Amino acid sequence: MSKVGKLPVAIPAGVTVNVADGVIAVKGPKGELKQSFHNEIDIKVQGTEVLLTPKDESKQTNAYHGLYRSLINNMVKGVTEGFSKTLIITGVGFRAEVKGKELIMNLGYSTDFIAMIPDGLTVTATPDGKVTIAGIDKQLVGEFSSQIRKLRKPEPYKGKGIRYEDEVIRRKVGKTGVK
Questions:
Q1: Strand runs labelled E in the chain
Q2: Cα distance between residue 179 and residue 177, in whole Å
Q3: Which of 61, 78, 98, 167 has the fewest CB atoms within 10 Å distance of its CB?
């Protein structure tokens, strides 16, 4: 049995959880999320918690047990609080701006990068180089922020590029004078 899967998921006030036909739906003040699941895990809503029990003890079922518990917990947290990631753009002339459903970034290349903002996400860019990505779906927030970071990863010599707010870049010493 999974250590993570054994823990019940608490349902706060104002959140409803419905399980039907292989789909779990979580509805809260910020929106609604749906997730399909395998029939190897039995999901029950009892009072103010969601309990997950595996139907057998195979290795794959134990993996699903912990996975679905984490997914349901993230769904409940997303519809109540939401998720956000902050990216910091560092470099001379590097900037980002939001126009409608597009994130336009100048990252030191000859052309600008234009990223379409997915539905369900809100993106804000400040003039000092901070881009905040927020939404109720943790997977979508993480995926979009990683795609933006991949456009110009931070380099270790000058620190230029796009990094997460809590990320620490290990700086390297450049070449010393050659005789």
A1: 9-10, 16-20, 23-28, 31-36, 41-46, 49-54, 83-90, 95-99, 102-106, 113-116, 121-125, 130-135, 161-164
A2: 7
A3: 167
